Amino acid sequence: MEPVKSQLAASSTLEAGFDPVVPSPPERRTTPRTWETPPAPVPSPHLDDYQGIVGTAAIDELRYLARDLKGKTLKMVNSTALGGGVAEMLNRLVPLLGELEVVTHWDVITGGNDFFEVTKAFHNALHGSAYELTRHAQEIFLTYNEQNRHRMQFNEDVVVIHDPQPAALIRARQDAPTRWVWRCHIDLSNPNPQVWGFLRPFIEQYDAAIVSSQSFAHQLPIPQYLFYPCIDPLSEKNKPLDDSFVQKVCDEFGIDRSRPIVTQVSRFDRLKDPVGVVQAFKLARKYLDCQLVMAGGGASDDPEGALVLREVKEAAAEDPDIIILELPPWCALQINALQRASTLVVQKSIKEGFGLTVTEALWKGKATIAGAVGGIPNQVIDKRTGMLVHSVEGCAYQIRYLLTHPEFAVQLGRNGREHVKENFLMTTNVRRWLLLMRIMLGWGTV
Amino acid sequence: MSTAATTTQRAPAKPFYFNTSAHLLRITEYKANRLADLLDALRDCPEESIFQHTFRTLEEHHFLRAGFSNDFAHWALAACNEPSLAEALAGVDVREFTSVAELRTRFIQILERYLHEHPPTGTRFADETFYFCASDIVVMPTSFQAHTLHEFTEGIRRVGLHSIHHHFIEARLRIKLMSNDFSQWLHEDAGLTETARSLNRIDIYTATLEDVREQIVRIVERALT
């Protein structure tokens, strides 16, 4: 935890309405110098590497739970090997399960552009977008699922199908004792009824479903388990950093660590309300000296992202204390450093899946202010592990409150980190998978 | 030689085996959008759900020192904005119950009385839905066992917090006594009745589970000196 109190020292003499005299910012870049070259992939950590973080007892539990599962087989099936949260999670999970001698195969379905156009539309529709499901779209979906069904084999003890794209692979189910689980990573709280009505008969054939939030559960005739998304504490995005590196990143972007830093890390997307964050910051800064860092991506390859970025810049109006950074996806270390340098982290979303940037901030012990939407209230317990807000004004007030009550901010950060340690780390996720396998195989629970 | 000195020098009659438990959260079909729904669901939901939202949630939020008692109280405040009901629900101490059925009855009584005294609140929609969950549980051994009181305190220091919760908080549902596994062992097998009683006086609602662990160690070590 950074010394919040000392960071606030410069602001202690400021009063309402006082126009702070701010030193000229150093030369500022909006992208890191390393942006041209994605770093080489980092080898996956081993189970013992987590021991120093979660304790020996937690690792012993995993080894015990895996003991009876040795030699049992698990297959994961999803639609992409690279990019996206599911692939990122599987890239970490599969080696750890393998280390526990649970033989885990990971298969990726194939499909043409027409298939992925249909499944992208399904994805958006399941998030609640309007969509007219045509017979042709259904045929494309089923044809590619059939092709994959013929190409793949399902001899494992447990087969887990991730998300809607491969959901119809359940047709491969035969009389064999293989147990089938559907893992849904997307927000199903308000699905398009046509698409859900089309997918539901497939989902009902599974032995169980896994969702990421209670509100995503539908009344299905199969058991539904709750697996929260998780972060890897040893990933580039979350591993501990030397303060010299944090300082270097701040220097590069012209961020002054002697003054309070409020940060939102998110794509430039209206659902993350970046303009609202700028407005909240400006309201708060009437009372306090502070800087705002808006770090995100998604503007270079997404026309809407570029538009939102322009709106954010307009709202910032070249304010030298608002630092807008457009970072490529491989700048995980820089994001990590920015979060660690922050006094407060904001995630003022107006719609959210789970909000892993909140998890990341909590893990770094940062007092966090977040919109009370989606999976965020599972992480931010209001006034216990962070502050929930519903408006620009509420966000501005909480920025002021936490910057002027550093002991409370420190306590929130401490609680938030413990909450993540208990519920949202990769090791907890491994434990959930081991428990699920035991349950699916019919043994081991009381 | 004092009685205490005699008992601490004597080896406990039986070793203490530290176990722990792991839980997988399942979402049930029960949910509530209003306080009246909550009452209906409290009457009908499986016992595992009552356990989940009381005993288990304490474990999930073991790092909070104050302000969190059970999920029903939290929802009454955060989603229904009913602070006096929330206080009444939060005042239910799970350690006063040796069965989930009794605990369920207590919550139903509180809610029935509140809705009787404040009828309009029953049909007002909450900001968020309450989803009744339940846990599938695996109990497992740890590598720790205590043949002496010294090994016992060492075990308490080194086991995971899930083990502390398993033996110190959940245990009463298993042993059907207003006590816990640690106190039972100290009383029955180590002859430290007063120490056993002292453990039962630890306030789990104003301490984190890590604090509870430290208090247990302190109390047992005091008996050893």
Describe, in plain words, how this protein is organized in 3D.
The complex is a heterodimer of chains A (446) and B (225). With 446 residues, chain A is an alpha/beta fold. Chain A has two domains: 4-24 and 236-423, Rossmann fold, CATH 3.40.50; 55-230 and 425-440, 3-Layer(aba) Sandwich (Rossmann fold), CATH 3.40.50. In chain A, 41% of the residues lie in helices and 13% in strands. In chain A, the strands form two sheets. A six-stranded parallel sheet of chain A has the order 2-1-3-4-5-6, with helices on one face. Chain A starts with a helix and ends in a 6-residue tail after the last helix. Residues 1-23 of chain A have low confidence and may be disordered. Chain B starts with a helix and ends with a helix. With 225 residues, chain B is an alpha+beta fold. Helices cover 53% and strands 18% of the residues of chain B. Chain B is built from twelve helices and two strands, in the order αβαααααβαααααα. In chain B, helix 3 crosses helix 6 and helix 7 (149-158) packs antiparallel against helix 12 (209-224). In chain B, strands 1-2 form a two-stranded antiparallel ribbon. Chain B folds into two domains: 14-21 and 140-224, no CATH class; 22-135, no CATH class. The interface between A and B is large, with 37 and 34 residues. Strand 6 of chain A pairs antiparallel with strand 1 (16-34) of chain B.
